[in-house]
Amino acid sequence: MIYGYAEHLLATRQLERLLPMLTDKQVQFPDDPYFYELQSRAYTMQGKNLLRHQAQGEAYVRRYNLRGAVEQMDLASKASDGDFYQHSIVEARLGQLRLQLDDKKRD
Of 33, 34, 60, 67, which has the maximum CB count within 10 A? Predict the structure, then answer.
């Protein structure tokens, strides 16, 4: 039911209602990639590239696709929008993901 309501808000471009709801659901269900994918789609509609790639990267992490997550976070780090704080978060997360990917390659 939550997914359907979120899809409805996205389809009707009610992003001011959708984005806070998704943030709340991400706290309640931190391992659910779908809320991050919806968030990425909403940010795409708003033209927020850094946030779009960051959200998609987090979705990939939850789908166990570290390579895709690193690629998305790298795109987020290179985005020309976003503030210093957002770029710092992305850079830190990108570093974590690269370490995880390197560790996985060694196994």
Answer: 60
